Amino acid sequence: VWGSDSWLQVSLPGVITRELGEMGLDPELGAPANLKVVMEVPRFGVSMKPRRETASFLAALFSGLKGVRLKAGSGHVRGIEPDLLSAVMIESPWRGLSHKGYAWWLLGNLYLNEVFAGGGHNRAALHCARRAYGRAAGLVLLDSNPSLFTAIHNNIGVVRYLQGMFEAVADAPERALKSWRLALTGSRQELWRKLSVRRIVSQENLAAFENLRLVQPVGEGGKTVKRSNTKSKRRKTHVKRPRSARSVGARAEKD
Question: Residue 219: phi, psi to the nearest 5?
């Protein structure tokens, strides 16, 4: 934890991603086991004022963080969930609320980690994950924390895709694709903040990109529709327009 009298930055171990297969997904369920979930981000910030509420929030959050990285299990949820819920329920006139979005996002990860814990899939845990991620998305703006913004919307995409697989939600696959595209919007914002070329592609960016590529819609014949075809058609149409305009002008002169 470091910063000034007005703003604190909390540095974290770094970006951690996990595939659904590593989280206990049974391949027989039919969902892609290599869909990636972002489990940790490099940092988050919080206003130092008001000091009492900030100290209470950080105390509850750090208490919950001790067990967040444990393996899935309902006992772990009961032990970690109260601390994280205590953190998100603290109300105060902070300058920005992305730190509470981080806590809600951790709760979403905790619930998502329980979806495949006992074999099969837990629909209640999946629903809880979706609601927690939704609360996080409402608190984290792109400019406030691009990495966290990307991670939230990547994980929302994973949950929506699973809802389409297991709950037959009609528009869930399309919503999943929209979430991953929105996550990549955050990734592009983050690229401009990187000081080293070696760090241009981060793990949370790759997770959203690979998830999108894995389940992107296909065109006729089972082949992915290439963007180059669309561009070439636009070029041809653009070239024909001036010719038709000249021909119309020539006819007008003859008349």
Answer: -95, -160
Cβ proximity of 74 and 40 under 8 Å:
no
Contact (CB, 8 A) for 154 and 180: yes
Average pLDDT of the residues in 10-39: 85
Rounded Cα distance, 118 and 24, in Å: 8
Q: What are phi and psi of 2, to 5 degrees?
A: -150, 165
Tokens of 114: 């329980």
CB 136, CB 101: distance < 8 Å? yes
How many other β-carbons are positioned within 10 Å of the β-carbon of residue 205? 24
Instruction: Name the residue among 111, 120, 130 with its Cα closest to residue 31.
Output: 120
Taking Cα atoms as reference points, which of 67, 58, 176 lies closest to residue 113?
A: 67
Burial (CB count <10 Å: 0-12, 13-18, 19+), residue 11: exposed
Burial category of 202 from C-beta neighbours within 10 Å (exposed 0-12, middle 13-18, buried 19 and up) = buried
Sign for the pseudo-dihedral over CA of 74, 75, 79, 80 = negative
Give the residue-averaged pLDDT of 164-175: 84
From CA 162, how far away is CA 232, in angstroms rounded?
A: 36
pLDDT band at 76 (very low <50, low <70, confident <90, very high): low
Residue with tokens 């951790």: 106
- Alpha-carbon distance of 145 to 193, in angstroms, equals 11
Query: Strand pairing partners for 45?
Result: 9
Cβ neighbours of residue 166 closer than 8 Å, sequence gap 6 or more = 29, 31, 121, 123, 126
Q: For the residues 199-228, what does the mean pLDDT come to?
A: 56
Q: Do 12 and 44 touch, CB atoms closer than 8 A?
A: yes
